Amino acid sequence: MTDTILIAKKYGVNIGAHPSYPDKENF
Q1: pTM for the predicted model, two decimal places
Q2: Which Gene3D superfamilies does the annotation name (predicted)?
Q3: What is the pLDDT of residues 2-24, one digit of tens each?
């Protein structure tokens, strides 16, 4: 995870979190 963030920063890529939905059956 940390490596992914560092690589994204290196290339100027923005990282965003998305909300999780209570849909475990169809996940």
Answers
A1: 0.44
A2: Glycoside hydrolase/deacetylase
A3: 898 899 889 999 888 777 777 77
